[in-house]
Structure formats: structure tokens, C-alpha cells
């Protein structure tokens, strides 16, 4: 690019007497300096380099028009500081266990889209508060290995593997529902199915949660003879979640079967020993023992009542709490 004669003459006046020091004198190396409006000094001297650098600047600092930086719009499911500061939160990282039967709804079909959408919306409501949510899904709505073992020569191990594949189907369906309303979701499976899901890697799962993504764990533990309840307790311990939220078709744990005894009483809290000694059908013994050994509380609540998932995740009094005590004053509804 050609330089005009007047401009060349001006820059020549800035050169020192020795041309060997041109690069260091004209462009000195110094620490970065951040100018404030009051630090601008525009000189009238022709030889001033500041005038050459800021000749387009306004003559008065008062004439600067500082525009407030534009903040990009936040995702509808990102952290809201106002909501997080006003809403008391009991747990910051939770594991939600959703049984396959619960996904079936009224059992008119294997998966009820209304149920999955209700789960997605309530999970979305709590992710705005900065709560990290992981989900373990069952597969009983499609195939339950323990029920089919022995049929037509099907051994228990093979039946359980088929049941694990059923949980993957539920997980992919639930992921699609969540992402349809803007919730970033990842599915991780206990055995490799690279075309449809990520393999389960604990550190990757934790990283997804830290980035605000919902992680769905499928295929149980990857081993036969273990239920998805045990998978929920195991994954909860591995990712350092603070509670297992078990979503069922009943309001919680009762002192008797509510279907046979209309006067059965809903229990507010239980100890791990109560569950094992009374043989309460809350979770299988392997799962409840794993929770006890790792001091993981369990909340059993009704999935079919609107708002229960959000209440449970926030730590409000809903259903039955096992292995801890309520410290919330919010009444049960």
C-alpha cells in the first residue's frame, strides 16, 4: 500500500537520530495498559504520537457514549440467579429412578408420551435452579427379565440382558422428549452401544452434570441378577449424588398394603433397618444395603401426581424419606 508524502513526512519526524533503534523506539515493548475515559490526553503538538493514535477520539471525555455490553439471552433451562437465591434447595445433585411401569402410564401402550413429557417439564423446572439431575430408567414396561426366565428355555442371564436392552429403549425415548423442549441430555449405557448412546464413563458423566446436562443411565449395571434399583444406588454413589429419588405409582411407603387396607398409614420417615427388618418392598435388599453403606437417603414418591418430581428434587416433604429426617417446613400435599 502506497503512503502519501505528507503522511511519510509526519512519521519521519517521529524517527530517532539512529535508525538502528527504530523498532524499539517507535514501538516500545511495555506492559499492557487499560485506558479509562479520564486517562485520554489529546495533545495539539504535531509530533505527538498520541494525537496520531487518537485523532478520531472526541475532544472531551464527557462526549464519550459508553454503551452497556449486550448480554446474550439465556437458555430457558439455564441457571437463574434470582430463582436460585430465593428458593431453598436441599440437594444440588440428585439421581431420579424412574421405573418402567411408571413410564407405561395406564398401560394402554408400552410408553406413555404424556408421562415422559411430564417428567421432562418438571426436570426442566429444577435445572433452572442449578440442580444437577441424573436419571436411571427401568425396563419393566417392555420386558422384565425375572418374569421371563425359564420360558421356552430362556435362562435368567439371557432374560436379564434382554431387560437391559428394554431400559435403553426407554432411555432413548426419554432423551428425545427432553431434548424436544430444549434440555441437553446424554444417554450412557453400561455396555457399549456406540451408535445410539455413550458408554458409561464416570468422569464423563460427572462432567456432563457440571455443564448442566441431564444424564440418563441405561442398561442397569450391565450385569444379570441385578435390578435397576441397584443400578440407581450404584450410580448415585459413583457420581457423588446426594439422594436417590424413587418415582413409583404409589404415594410412598405404607405400614400396610393400601389396596387391601383403606386405613393404611403413609409413613413419613423410615430407617434402613426398618426396610430390611420389615421386608418392605421399597427397593431390593442389595440396593437398600448399598444406600445404607454409603449414607445415601432415599425418597419414595408418586410419579403420577403433577409437581411431585419437582418437589422431591427440591427436597420438599413428599412421599417417604428413608435414611434421613426432613428439615423442611413445607407441608405434605
UniProtKB/TrEMBL annotation:
Family: Belongs to the UMP kinase family.
Pathway: Pyrimidine metabolism; CTP biosynthesis via de novo pathway; UDP from UMP (UMPK route): step 1/1
Tagged with keyword Nucleotide-binding: yes
Gene3D superfamilies: Acetylglutamate kinase-like
Enzyme Commission number(s) of this protein: 2.7.4.22
Name of the molecule in the record: UMP kinase
UniProt keyword Flavoprotein, yes or no: no
Organism (species): Stylosanthes scabra
Record-annotated Aspartate/glutamate/uridylate kinase domain positions: 93-302
Top-level division of the source organism's lineage: Eukaryota
Signal peptide: none
InterPro entries cross-referenced by the UniProt entry: AceGlu_kinase-like_sf, Asp/Glu/Uridylate_kinase, Uridylate_kinase_bac
Pfam families assigned to the protein according to its UniProt record, in alphabetical order: AA_kinase
Entry keywords, A to Z: ATP-binding, Kinase, Nucleotide-binding, Pyrimidine biosynthesis, Transferase
Amino acid at each position: 500500500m502506497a503512503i502519501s508524502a505528507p503522511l511519510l513526512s509526519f512519521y519521519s519526524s517521529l524517527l530517532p537520530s539512529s535508525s538502528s533503534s527504530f523498532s524499539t523506539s517507535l514501538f516500545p515493548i511495555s506492559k499492557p495498559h487499560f485506558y479509562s475515559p479520564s486517562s485520554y490526553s489529546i495533545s495539539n503538538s504535531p509530533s505527538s504520537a498520541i494525537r496520531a493514535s487518537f485523532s478520531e477520539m472526541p475532544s472531551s471525555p464527557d462526549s464519550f457514549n459508553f454503551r452497556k455490553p449486550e448480554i446474550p439471552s439465556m437458555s430457558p433451562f439455564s441457571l437463574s440467579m434470582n430463582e436460585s437465591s430465593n428458593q431453598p434447595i436441599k440437594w444440588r445433585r440428585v439421581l431420579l429412578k424412574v421405573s418402567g411401569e411408571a413410564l407405561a402410564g395406564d398401560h394402554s401402550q408400552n410408553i406413555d408420551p404424556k408421562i415422559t413429557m411430564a417428567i421432562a417439564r418438571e426436570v426442566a423446572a429444577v435445572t433452572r435452579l442449578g440442580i444437577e439431575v441424573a436419571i436411571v430408567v427401568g425396563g419393566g414396561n417392555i420386558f422384565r427379565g425375572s418374569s421371563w426366565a425359564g420360558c421356552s428355555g430362556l435362562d435368567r442371564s439371557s432374560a436379564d440382558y434382554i431387560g437391559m436392552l428394554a431400559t435403553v429403549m426407554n432411555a432413548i425415548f426419554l432423551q428425545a422428549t427432553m431434548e424436544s423442549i430444549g434440555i441437553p441430555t446424554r444417554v450412557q449405557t453400561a455396555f457399549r452401544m456406540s451408535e445410539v448412546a455413550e458408554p458409561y464413563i464416570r468422569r464423563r458423566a460427572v462432567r456432563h452434570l457440571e455443564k448442566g446436562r441431564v444424564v440418563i443411565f441405561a442398561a442397569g449395571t450391565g450385569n444379570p441378577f441385578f435390578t435397576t434399583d441397584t443400578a440407581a444406588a450404584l450410580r448415585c454413589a459413583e457420581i457423588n449424588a446426594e439422594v436417590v429419588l424413587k418415582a413409583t405409582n404409589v404415594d410412598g411407603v405404607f405400614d400396610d398394603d393400601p389396596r387391601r387396607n383403606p386405613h393404611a398409614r403413609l409413613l413419613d420417615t423410615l430407617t434402613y433397618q426398618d426396610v430390611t427388618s420389615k421386608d418392605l418392598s421399597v427397593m431390593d435388599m442389595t440396593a437398600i444395603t448399598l444406600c445404607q453403606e454409603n449414607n445415601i437417603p432415599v425418597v419414595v414418591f408418586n410419579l403420577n401426581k403433577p409437581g411431585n418430581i419437582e418437589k422431591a428434587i427440591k427436597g420438599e416433604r413428599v412421599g417417604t424419606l428413608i435414611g434421613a429426617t426432613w428439615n423442611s417446613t413445607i407441608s405434605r400435599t
